[in-house]
Design the sequence.
């Protein structure tokens, strides 16, 4: 029944001719009118008999037209879903801006802190170098309330600080939506002296930015958002993005020895590599491509299952330099090294 209605609708819209609609309706009626053993008679028909009844070119033409109609319908559905998504995002933005207050809180850390962990849900994490003193974290949050005292209490309850020997952890753990007032977002500004050895920064949604950080190890993770690392002077750099790009800008400092970048659904970009830096690396791309500076690097590609692996090293050898090893993995995205 549904098939007949669809054929009649296509005929009414002018997407099928009357002859084509008649052929389709006849094809639908034949199985219902046939007796139980009638399929044997159909099975004995030769192709020439079928071809005399319905020319092959008409079936092809009809199939092409149906394919076009289906493609147009899918396109309409896709556009409708995209419009609905934009509407929901606009409604969410209006909701977050209505009756929301901005509050801040400083989180001082002891000078004995050598290993720092910072994490938040929705927001932004920025890591900057500090000239001296202990590490510190400045929290900027938006709370869905019109009462300032309630907003400050909500932020104070969400900031969790833990310390064990020389390890410190600062986490923003907002209360559930059923508890008012609700924390909309929380941005963390982290000031890092050179006395801190390792830094691990993680957020669920937003941008993670680290600029000119000096340490032994810098790790950055985000589920949905981008990671930007600007000239890290770190021995080991590690960045992972679930849905979003990773950009390593301005190369790295003299302490750097290894860089690991991984993006599930996003592009990887490494640029500004120092001219006097010796390096080699491996690029792994599943559904993307590797874009390397051919004038500077020699590359050798190989296919390993569904992945393409490119091993590269720079053409100019610098025997007096300790090499920097790059491991770049993009599941769905492009890897660019300049």
Sequence:
């Amino acid at each position: 029944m549904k098939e007949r209605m669809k054929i009649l609708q296509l005929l009414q819209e002018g997407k099928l001719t009357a002859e084509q609609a008649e052929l389709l309706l006849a094809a639908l009626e034949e199985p219902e009118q046939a007796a139980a053993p009638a399929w044997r008679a159909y099975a004995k028909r030769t192709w020439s008999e079928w071809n005399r009844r319905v020319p092959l070119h008409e079936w092809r033409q009809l199939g092409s037209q149906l394919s076009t109609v289906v493609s147009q319908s899918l396109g309409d559905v896709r556009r409708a879903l995209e419009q609905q998504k934009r509407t929901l995002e606009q409604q969410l933005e209006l909701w977050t801006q209505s009756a929301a207050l901005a509050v801040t809180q400083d989180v001082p850390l002891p000078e004995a802190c050598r290993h720092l962990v910072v994490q938040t849900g929705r927001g932004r994490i920025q890591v900057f170098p500090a000239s001296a003193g202990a590490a510190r974290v400045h929290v900027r949050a938006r709370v869905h309330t019109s009462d300032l005292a309630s907003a400050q209490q909500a932020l104070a309850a969400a900031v969790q600080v833990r310390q064990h020997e020389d390890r410190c952890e600062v986490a923003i753990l907002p209360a559930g939506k059923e508890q008012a007032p609700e924390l909309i977002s929380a941005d963390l500004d982290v000031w890092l002296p050179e006395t801190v050895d390792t830094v691990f920064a993680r957020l669920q949604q937003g941008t993670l930015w680290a600029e000119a950080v000096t340490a032994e190890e810098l790790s950055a993770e985000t589920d949905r958002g981008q990671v930007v690392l600007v000239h890290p002077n770190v021995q080991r750099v590690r960045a992972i993005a679930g849905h979003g790009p990773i950009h390593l800008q301005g190369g790295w400092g003299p302490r750097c020895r290894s860089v690991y970048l991984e993006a599930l659904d996003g592009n990887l970009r490494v640029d500004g590599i120092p001219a006097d830096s010796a390096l080699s690396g491996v690029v792994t791309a599943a559904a993307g491509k590797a874009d390397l500076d051919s004038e500077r690097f020699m590359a050798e590609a190989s296919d390993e299952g569904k992945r393409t692996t490119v091993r590269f090293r720079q053409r100019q050898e610098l025997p007096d330099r300790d090499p920097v090893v790059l491991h770049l993995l993009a599941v769905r995205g492009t890897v660019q090294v300049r």
Remarks:
- The helical segments are 2-12, 18-33, 38-44, 47-53, 56-97, 148-158.
